Each structure stands twice: as C-alpha cells, then as structure tokens.
Amino acid sequence: MGKNGSGKSTFSKVLVGHPDYEVTGGSVVFNGENLLDMEPEERSLAGLFMSFQSPVEIPGVNNIDFLHMAYNARRKKLGEPELGPLEFYAYIYPKLDLVNMKIDFLNRNVNEGFSGGERKRNEILQLAVLGADLAILDEIDSGLDVDALQDVAKAVNGLWTPKELSFDDHSLSTTLGGYKTGMHPYYDFWMSKPRLSVPYQKVGV
Fold first, then answer.
1. Closest CA to 29 of 40, 41, 43
2. Of 19, 148, 158, 179, which has fewest CB within 10 angstroms of its CB?
C-alpha cells in the first residue's frame, strides 16, 4: 500500500518484466530463481501473475483460446500433460461462477468491448485458471461499481490459498474492497515508500 507516486505500480511492473523499466543492479529471487534473468513470459510460466489497472484489449483472440494456450504452457512448464479442448472446457466452466461471468464471455475477444467490471473479472478469471504462485493485483478495485467490486472481492477470497497474494493499492480500505463486509480476513500486501519497498505478509485485520 502507499500514496500516489510511491512506486507501487512501478515496482510491480519491474517484477513482471515490463519493457519500460531497466534494473541496473541487485536481484529478485522467486522460487529459487532470479526473476531479473528471465523474460516476461518465463516469469509468468514460473508462477508470477499480475492484473493491471487498465487491462488492454487483444482483438482477434478469443478468451477461451487465450486461456487454453496460457494454461497448457504453464502445465508444460510444470511437467504436466496438456489438456485438450474438451478437458479444458470442463476445467474452466466452474471458474466462471467464481467471477460471475456468463459462458459467452469465453467466445468474446480478450477484453474487447468489455466494461471496466468485465475486464477486472476477466483478470481474476485468468488468475483462477493459471493458478499462479504469486499474484500481484494492481488497484484491482479501480473503476469498479459496487456490484463489480463485490464480485471481484468474492472471487479473490475464493482463490485465497497459503500461496502469495499481494494487493497494490492506496489504502487499507480500498485494498480490502469494502472490508466492513468481512471480505478479506487475511491478506498479503506490499507497503511502499518513495525509493523503498518492504514486503509484509499475512497481516490480520
């Protein structure tokens, strides 16, 4: 967490290998590997996931093909057999309920014509499908109405495991997505200060 300009999004983008940033020294060790030695797609395959404040459209690529390819790439990295189309459909179908998305979203192009809430739901669907080891949710509440915020918070709670789940936000209240409803009894987050980022884990509320 931190105020505007404290470096939350910058730090998150550096972790996932955004091309706008160059790291001139140091290392970032994740699961025994230095992320800085890896290409962005290699970081993803290693189990790193980031949802963006403003997810981009990918015209011409529908959701189910995108997710199927990404999921099989992850399975291949883990030494597991790839899933065929029917097997993958059976795998992804229950996850649509988790993010309150209709099945026709799978046949739409990735984020094309999606509302803000639909894009954020789609990001969480990607997280649910890929089963990342470390998820960074960059202002996941940004631009959402109350209903969409509740859906996203419920989905994130449903995905909660002992794995790392980090929120990148301005304040505790927005990070929790309306904590008064008890949406996040436990969470991990990064607390950021100018030129300094300190990880904190499993902080009770």
1. 43
2. 19
Q: How many CB atoms lie within 10 A of CB 157?
A: 16
Contact assessment for residue 132 and residue 48, using Cβ atoms and an 8 Å cutoff: yes
Beta bridge partners of 167: 137, 189
The CA distance from 36 to 195, in Å, is 19
Please give the Cα distance from 30 to 34 (Å, whole number).
6
The whole-angstrom separation of Cα 6 and Cα 202 is 22
| Residue 99 near residue 151 (C-beta atoms within 8 A) | yes
Give the Cα separation of 188 and 62 in Å (integer). 32
Cα 9 from chain centre: 13
The pair of structure tokens assigned to 107 is 């046949």
What would the pLDDT profile of 151-179 be if each residue is shown by its tens digit?
A: 777 777 777 655 544 454 544 333 333 33
pLDDT at position 115 is 85
Kind plus residue range of the DSSP H or E element containing 196: strand 196-204
The CA distance from 33 to 47, in Å, is 11
